[in-house]
Amino acid sequence: MNKPRLEGARQSRTRFADRYNAWLRHHRLSAADSLHRVLSNKLSTLMTFLVIGIALALPVGLNVALDNATQLSAGWDSPSQISLFLRDSVTGEEAAALATELEQRPDISAVQVVTSEDALAEFSALSGFADVLASLEDNPLPNLLLVTPTTGLEGAAVGGLRTKLGERQEVSEAVLDMEWLQRLNSLMELSRRIVMAIGGLLVVGVVLILGNTIRLAIENRREEIVIVKLVGGSNPFVRRPFLYTGLWFGFGGGLVAALLVTLCLWFLRAPVSQLAALYQSDFTLKGLGLMGSLNLLVLGGLLGLAGAWLAVTRHLADIEPR
């Protein structure tokens, strides 16, 4: 009589495809569950969205304003020109001879002579005081040379040229017409760095706000985390829903920031257009655009993930079954 064959316990092996499908399924469930939890607490979620949105909108809005200012100043940029106001004793013939001499310099491309008579006629036509100027016995304007440096000459070299020309005996004063634009560009560069510093501080603040929000969520679900760990749940398994919670908070804050910046630009667009029309300019405010808004959403999501990761890594290790 044959005895029944006895078999021992066999180790079950899970296929890689099954593990991947389970991992993907848990991601979907964690994302949906965390989104449901975020949207279920409407008031607290809205407050968190607003805090994050305002913190992100401030540096982004200032940066958009600087971009518009840069766009406006780009239209003013022109080759640097040095105005040489000659002494009263210099006649028109001497001014023309000086212009011919200066044109021979390799760092000067052109010199235009503006006589005192031409300057007075132009000023009379533009100012509207032709009758008053006609009553003057003497012409108060000096002869003028407009010196254009060679193309490609750097700002320091142009400044040195202005200094050398101003030291000539015939010259009363030398003025670099583009100095004001260089000062404006330097001021805008300083402003941009200040905005970057403020933005960096606010980004750190957003990460801390999100970290504190996730920490409260962890404390509220402490018992659930303990039970999951008791039945064998790993730290990545427990961490995943909180990371998605931070991601949703970051996306919501980025969306609020984009809406705030767009609303502010819409509020300012009409008066800016009116002011530009008074100066015969076609300048219009430029906003974030589609890509800028998407980048803001991505930035908010990444900050949400960073804040959630810091909070979960810090506090999850303290929650262990006893």
Automatic annotation (TrEMBL):
Pfam families: FtsX, FtsX_ECD
Subcellular location: Cell inner membrane
Domain (FtsX extracellular) ranges: 81-158
Alphabetical UniProt keywords: Cell cycle, Cell division, Cell inner membrane, Cell membrane, Membrane, Transmembrane, Transmembrane helix
UniProt domain ABC3 transporter permease C-terminal: residue ranges: 197-314
UniProt key word Membrane: yes
Entry GO terms, CC: cell division site; plasma membrane
Membrane topology reported for the UniProt record: Multi-pass membrane protein
Name of the molecule in the record: Cell division protein FtsX
Organism: Pseudohalioglobus lutimaris
